[in-house]
Structure formats: C-alpha cells, structure tokens
C-alpha cells in the first residue's frame, strides 16, 4: 500500500486537523450530514435578525455555513446581513463570495477589541480538537463580549467522552489511539455537560442543548451521504499528529496508519 499524500496543517500543535483541499471536501460532506440531522435547519437558536445585523461565524473553514445561511436569509427577507467569518488559516476560504461576507484570519481566543458589542448572532462549529479547559473559557468570554445585549451564540459540538465506534480489532485500536491523543491535548469530551457551565459562568442566560445521534455507516434513509467516509476522512486528517507521537506504541508509520483506517472502514461497513 502506498502512503497517503502529505497534508497541510496551520498548526499541528494547536489544531489536530489539516486546512487543505481534502479537509475542505470533508467539511462539505460533514456540513450536509449535520444539516440533514437537524431537519435541514442552518440555525437552531431562536434568533430574530434584521437587515444589516452583524453575524459572526467562528472557525469558518471554507465558509460553507455562512454562504448557505446568507443565501437563505437574503431570499427570505430581501435584505442583507453583515457577516464576519474567521479562522486561524485562510487556506480554505472561498475565492468568491458576496460583498456582505468578510473573511479574515483571527482566533476566537483573541478577537479584535473593536468587535466588542457588535454581533447579534455567533455561530461556531466543532472546535473540540482545538480546545482545552483554559482555551474554552477564554473563547466563551471573548464571544460573550462580542455579542450585543440580547444576542445569541450557537455552539455545535460532538460528544467525545466515550468513543463508541469500536466494533472490531481495528476500530477498537483506533479508539485507543484517539483517546490517548485527546487526553494528551486536554480535549474536553463531555461538552454537552461542560459548555453550559462555562456559558453560565461568563454571563449567558437561557441556555439550551439540542442533541442528535448520527450513526457511523455508509448512509441513512438512502440519503446518499456517506457517514463512514466522513469519519474515515476525519481520522485520516489526524494521521500526522498520531504518527508523530509514534502511534502511542501501536502505529509507527504512515502506511500502518492507512492500513488501520482501511480496516476500520471495512468493519463499520
């Protein structure tokens, strides 16, 4: 088996996933799966926006959520919002986008001071592998300060306290590797319990949690969305940091990791 191609990481130390074209494709599939899981809703918070309100998308990646949200709002309201999209890397930002959407390289842990009391709605997805307890507390405070009074924040995250995708020898080994990596990085696994406490501590009120279970299998209800492929691509994105750590004594080369993931895909069907 040939080793998979090299990937690009904005910071393999601070964020465990790459920021290249392969990751952009994975994020697009992930976006479709997640939107489908939440009944095709792009917004879960009971937010009421009007023309020229400011919206912030943190950890925007390719901006796929912001682009679709902007199109839907414009079509329904015949007006435009002012949307800021930020990420720690610009490599996934789209080349073309509407003039009311702005992309910039920013960290949610250090937002521009002039953004204080600016946004009516903040949307952020899947920062679990980039954050530890200290960073979560800093980021939530930064987002609280960026909101106008009465504004809404929406955090979409995955639960990873107990990884439940082990169904055979390959996937059980992968669970062990990912668990070790998360423990080393200080990743918070039970975000459904953890985040409401942090949100309340900085001043948020009216906190809600809405959950969905999305099985890891090739598709669900014949919707054509390959969930196992999306998860395979996610774990492949973690190949570099895992191999760099010697696979915690279990996977020592890139080829061995590729073989492990293929075995996982076969087990999960």
Helix and strand layout, with pairings?
Blueprint: H1 21-37, E1 54-58, H2 64-77, E2 82-87, E3 101-105, E4 119-125, H3 133-146, E5 147-156, H4 169-185, H5 191-202, H6 227-237, H7 239-244, H8 254-268
Helix pairs in contact: 1-6, 3-5, 4-8, 6-8
What does this structure look like?
The chain has 269 residues and is α/β, with parallel strands linked by helices. The chain has one domain: 3-Layer(aba) Sandwich (Rossmann fold). Helices cover 39% and strands 12% of the residues. The protein is built from eight helices and five strands. A five-stranded parallel β-sheet has the order 3-2-1-4-5. α2 links the parallel β1 and β2. The mean pLDDT is 89.
Report a brief summary of the structure.
Helix content is 39%, strand content 12%.
Low-pLDDT runs: none
Gyration radius over CA: 19 Å
Q: Kindly identify the CATH topology.
A: Rossmann fold
- Biggest beta sheet summary: 5 strands, parallel
Q: State mean pLDDT (0 to 100 scale).
A: 89
* Helix proportion range: 25-40%
The figure for the number of domains is 1
> Going by CATH, what is the homologous superfamily?
Vaccinia Virus protein VP39
Alpha carbon gap, first and last residue: 21 Å
Q: Please give the CATH class.
A: Alpha Beta
How are strands sequenced across the largest beta sheet?
A: 3-2-1-4-5
Query: Got a strand count?
Result: 5
Per DSSP, the total helix count is 8
Strand % is: 5-15%
| CATH architectural name | 3-Layer(aba) Sandwich
Class of secondary structure makeup: alpha/beta
| Order of SSEs | HEHEEEHEHHHHH
Choose one word for the global shape. globular
């Amino acid at each position: 088996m040939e080793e998979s191609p090299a990937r690009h990481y904005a910071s393999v130390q601070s964020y465990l996933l790459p920021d290249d074209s392969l990751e952009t494709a994975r994020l697009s599939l992930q976006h479709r799966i997640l939107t489908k899981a939440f009944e095709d809703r792009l917004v879960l918070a009971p937010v009421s926006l009007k023309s020229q309100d400011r919206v912030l998308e943190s950890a925007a990646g390719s901006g796929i959520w912001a682009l679709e949200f902007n199109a839907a709002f414009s079509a329904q309201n015949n007006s435009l919002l002012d949307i800021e999209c930020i990420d720690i890397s610009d490599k996934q930002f789209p080349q073309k986008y509407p003039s009311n959407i702005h992309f910039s390289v920013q960290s949610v842990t250090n937002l521009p001071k002039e953004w204080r009391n600016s946004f009516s709605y903040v949307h952020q997805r899947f920062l679990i592998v980039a954050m530890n307890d200290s960073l979560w507390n800093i980021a939530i405070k930064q987002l609280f300060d960026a909101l106008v009074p009465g504004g809404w924040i929406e955090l979409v995250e995955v639960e990873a306290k107990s990884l439940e995708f082990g169904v055979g020898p390959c996937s059980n080994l992968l669970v062990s590797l990912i668990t070790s990596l998360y423990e080393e990085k200080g990743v918070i696994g039970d975000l459904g319990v953890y985040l409401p406490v942090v949100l309340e501590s900085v001043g948020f009120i009216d906190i809600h949690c809405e959950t969905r279970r999305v099985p890891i299998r090739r598709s669900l209800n014949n919707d054509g969305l390959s969930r196992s492929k999306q998860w395979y691509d996610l774990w492949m994105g973690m190949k570099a940091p895992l191999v760099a750590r010697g696979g915690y004594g279990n996977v020592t080369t890139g080829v061995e990791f590729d073989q492990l993931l293929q075995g996982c895909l076969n087990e999960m069907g």
